[in-house]
Write a structure and sequence with these properties.
By secondary structure, the protein is an all-alpha fold. It is 74% helix and 0% strand. The termini are far apart. GO terms for molecular function: branched-chain amino acid transmembrane transporter activity.
Length: 335
Amino acid sequence: MSVTEVSNDITDAFPLRRGWQRDLIGVGIIIIAAIAGYFLFPNNLALLTRIIAILLLVLSLDLVTGYCGVATLGHAALFGAGAYAAGIAAVTFGMTEPLSMVAIGALAGAVAGLVSGVVILRGHGLAQLVLSIAVIHLFHEAANKASAYTGGSDGLSGIAPDPILGLFAFDLWGRTAYVFGILLLVIIFAVLRILVRSPFGMLCRGIRQDPVRVSAMGASVKASLIKMYVISGAVAGVGGAFNAVSTQVVGLDSLSFTNSAEALVMLVLGGTGSLYGAFVGTIVFVWFEDIVSAANPFHWLTIVGALLIAVVLFAPKGLYGTAVTLVERYGRGRK
């Protein structure tokens, strides 16, 4: 039995609840929210641009954790690989065209995803978490030691991207970077929705729910997971490259364990396995963190921790997942 046939069987067993119309509505909401953010927060575009970069990381994490059930605390390795690849290409090799830098970041992220996936997928459960932590620390130390290219603990600076398509220069207010990020986000989100609705995406859903059954049907579980890890790495690499383009600096914090842990927290906060949850979790976490840290710079972590505990206790499916469940329950009640 071919992988396509197995995927079709999985699609029959685990049907999608959302149609293409809802995906188009989702893209429309993203565009409307982006336009609203541009005009409502013109002095805070740097924060919105940062949210876009982090959101790409969380979306990539949702592919392997939400859709494949792979536990990882080292996903920032893929994000950092894309950031450093784009930065090194610009500083060392003079490749400062933004689209080329993003493409290089995607390629580096995909390679890092392949390497990480081969290592992490050798374990299961707790072993996967330990291996993922080891991977992020190895990537971090490798970047620190290669200071001739990465700048080490001082970071990689001097990144000066050219105008996009030779027409749109990056300005001090971050308008060009913000619009560029929104375009990348919309394109990637649309592609990922097509991916997760495809037979391959449904195969990965089936692996998450019952890997033994999928294997018995003739599909290669490990090969499918590695493929998704590579795709996830490319998405995270785009996020890292975009972060390098928008901030024009790359630091070791892009490869930090904290970055990986926060990405997982954002995903859990919004809800796994939908992509939409990644949006909700990232925006709520980063925005809440920004507001609370400004209001109470000494105890803001305690407040953020209280929020996360409340969500886990009262909304175990995440903010988006719980909202969807309540809406569906209300809809069935009216019938």
